[in-house]
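Chain X:
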Amino acid sequence: MEKSLVYHLQVDIFDALINDLNSFLFSSGNGYLGLSLSAQSQIQLISDIRSPFISSGYSPIIHMSSNIWEDSSATVIQMNQGLIKRIQCFKISEERSTYVTHLLYAHRRRSSLIIQEIDIINPSEQTFDLDFQQKKQILTNDIKQIDKQDIEFNSIKEKFIIIINQISIRQHNSIIYVIITNKDITNSHVKPNSQDKKIIYTVTKFSPPLLDDSLKNLTYFKQWQTILETQAREDLLEALSIPSKKLLKEHINTWLSIWQSGFSLSRSLAPSAMNGDIINRTIYYVLCSTPSPLYDFKINETNNNELNKTLFQIDQCYESHSTL
């Protein structure tokens, strides 16, 4: 997900360890994407900042489990970097454990892109097998699947899947959306004293609300489908051509630009005190759900100049006399 234009605040506790998994990420462009790390998470679409969430019915999140090894986990939000990490430890013996780190982020500059990096480290003397689980697509009366097929790119060995759906929304409107992501990843087989890494790319493009009557015109519908598919393919190919470390650095640097320091607080031990962890969490959610079009790669120079002008307006109440 991705978003922010105003509200540049920060206090001195950046990382908050939380017990629940409802850790939200956002990305924005002309439309917005929302995602939670929870097991029930589905990509949420927002066509306009004043509009409610529209569930896509699709979850890109990979969860890992084992039928043999006992596991425990913790989730961390790195707020000033726009990252969510989950750390899983699988107990193999009293002395040894294997470790799985999930890194999830919705790229702040590439508004259609969601990335999940999974690192598996097995320092034990045993082979470590893990099952990969994904809820994938949930169809409802409001979500109609138009097409679903495997796709390949000539320069890339990995296989991907493309899904085109139509979602009915209020006032006789619908949204067409396209998702491209890695084809099924079922398990991981990690040999003793070795490690494995997987990166799951998910690209989502969707239309503005379109009148249902207009979508009955097959030519009009196909035009939108072609536009969205082309954009999604281009965005994915561009992301795949960039090293994962560079993509992550782009994202972090953009978040650091958005999350600028404003003030700091000393920690209070008073009952019900509002300390930095609560304030930072609130700021994080505000920044997550506020557009940041100036940071989007796709913005053209004309729109960039117009947006910059809106950031430097003189407040009318100071024109006639000092109010100090």
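Chain Y:
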Amino acid sequence: MPIEVEQVSYVYQPGSPLAWTALDDVSLRIEAGSCWGIIGATGSGKSTLIQHFNGLLKPTRGRVRVDGVDLAQRGVDLRKVRSNVGLVFQYAEQQLFAETVFDDIAFGPRNLGVPAGDLPQRVGEAAHLVGLDPDVLTRSPFSLSGGQARRVALAGVLAMRPHTLVLDEPTAGLDPEGRHTLLQLIHRLHRQAKLTVILVSHSMDDVAEIAEQVLVMDKGRIAMQGTPRELFLRAQELEALGLGVPAAARLTGLLRDRGWNLPPAVTLDEAVDGILAALKGGRGRV
């Protein structure tokens, strides 16, 4: 189920003195089964872009197609589109409202018309995918930790069985352990459940860890695109856009400046492997 964005522009409050262009002639194609990271400074258009992927916003100009279907076409079932392209907002746990975790996870499928008798299976599958114990389902979502609550919000989207999962700053506000756990979960969903994953993040480390392709937004336009390795080794260009590079790239860059013979690295594992190899071969300095 590819997502195609063709020359899309989007203007907030058009025709008013407060009109401003959030997207300006954006084109891209996201293939089914791929994993993308979208980065950019605040106000670069990231969140506006992803809200076009399931029809929450409609382009001022241009087209968005999901699996070949133009979302602006008359008669398109947007409810079906939004079940196939699931969007998890930043701090999604703040949108939990039901008396029990079960009811919160069941909310989306129930609204899609899933029969009541099928809801336990849907909810159970989604809870299992995100690593929630069955006994959590009877608890109030407001009694959970931040990490658990975020997994409940994610399970509510997964219960609709989407083909594409779009996440807006999924690790925001989590401690390091919670961040690591959630990223591992997202990576597993991509690999094992074959989901297309689109991750919007201010964390270069998060994007470097799981993305296969990275899109860099700047002032509503695509500034750069490529693999994490291709982009994160262009530190000066990213800094000019108000962005940084992953900690692993900064560390190995500093060590290389001090005479270490290290290959470029963008993930922690790559940095560790390179440093250990340099020390073992006597090519590093201590």
